[in-house]
Amino acid sequence: MIDKKLGVRYDTHGVRAMEVAIIMGSKSDLPVVKPAIEVLKDFEVPFEVKILSAHRTPEELVQYVKEAERKGVKVFIAAAGGAAHLPGVVAAHTLVPVIGLPVMSKDLSGLDSILSIAQMPEGIPVASVGINRAKNAALLAIQILSMKDGGLLEKLRAFREAQKKRVLSSEVNLDEL
Ligand code: RP5
After folding, report:
1. Atom 6, ligand 1: which residue's CA is nearest?
2. Which tens digit of pLDDT belongs to each residue from 115-143?
3. CA-CA distances (angstroms) from residue 169 to 64, 82, 157, 159, 175?
4. Sign of CA dihedral 22, 65, 142, 106
């Protein structure tokens, strides 16, 4: 069922259908991914989290991407560090937009991660947020969803307004310096 006013889909039990799938290359990525999970919860966006790797579980990854597509996922967030081919491999197997979240790496401070994600061959685009910028990955996913979801658009407006108020109300007390 679709709520036409909001453009939101519900399954037969009246539960809002899953909209975002977060995939991370390893459980060790979870601390970086957590802020994205928190943002999606705050905005009440239904999501799923999976640990699957482009290199260590390639077949299962592709199988999951196809399954998620069938479940109606509208955005993938794929987090990986180092040779971060996960977002690119996901993008190669779907027409659903993919947001790459580069995870800080031990050896190259995440430069390897972000370049592996952003520098895709022509024809298979992946959006990339900054290194460890999980919150932005979730907000970008929500912005994509909000194009067809009036309720989410309102929540985004309120989020930006609150953010603006916080910045404008912050002051530097010269006595504290
Ligand atoms: C990547 O290698 C993962 O996404 C993680 O960021 C990094 C290290 O993985 P582990 O060795 O901790 O499993 O595949």
Report:
1. 81
2. 999 999 999 999 999 999 999 999 999 99
3. 45, 39, 18, 15, 18
4. positive
Query: Of all helices (H) and strands (E), which one includes residue 14?
Result: none
Ligand 1 centre and the CA of 24: distance in Å? 9
Q: Position of tokens 């994205």?
A: 36
Q: Whats the size of the chain, residue-wise?
A: 177
Question: Low-confidence residues of the chain, pLDDT below 50?
Answer: none
Q: Ligand 1 pocket by C-beta < 6 Å: which residues? A: 25-26, 28-29, 53, 80-82, 103
Domains and CATH numbers, the chain: 2-176 (3.40.50.1970)
* Residue 82: other Cβ atoms inside 10 A: 19
Residue at 175: amino acid letter: D
Strands (E), 34-177: 47-51, 75-81, 98-103, 127-128
Q: Which residues contact 140 (CB under 8 A, 6 or more apart)?
A: 99, 127, 129
Closest atom of ligand 1 to 28 CA is 12
Q: Is this prediction's pTM over 0.90?
A: yes
Q: Which of 164, 162, 167, 159 lies closest to 45, judged by CA?
A: 159
Q: How far is the CA of 96 from the centre of ligand 1 (A)?
A: 24
